[in-house]
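Lab notebook page, bench 4
Experiment: in silico fold of construct C2
Operator: M.H.
Input chain length: 109 residues
Purpose: comparison with the prior construct
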Amino acid sequence: MREGLYKVQFQTQIGEGAGVFVLHQGRIVGGDSIMYFTGTYSDKDGAFSADVHGIRHTASPNNFSVFGADDIHVHLTGTTVGDRGQVIGKADEAPKVIFQAIFSRVADL
């Protein structure tokens, strides 16, 4: 995958959402309207993996984390083709919640 800005759509059994993230030199940073995350990623021959730490940045009674927790450590694995990918993963703090996402590149850095 090329470095750049990506859009992402995600879901769990608890809810769904969308956000953006940046891939740059093995680092991933991004967020949505209530959470931000930072971490590392690897993409080798279409095998994608990432470990991210997500933290709630905005309190809102109408919005909630799709993990049911506001401070999470998520482990993701998946596949990429060109500038698109899909992942599945779990958070240490919510091991029964399955996270799924699709993402695609939208801009250069």
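Observations: Residues 74 and 91 are 4 Å apart (CA to CA). The chain has a mean pLDDT of 97.
Next step: discuss at group meeting.
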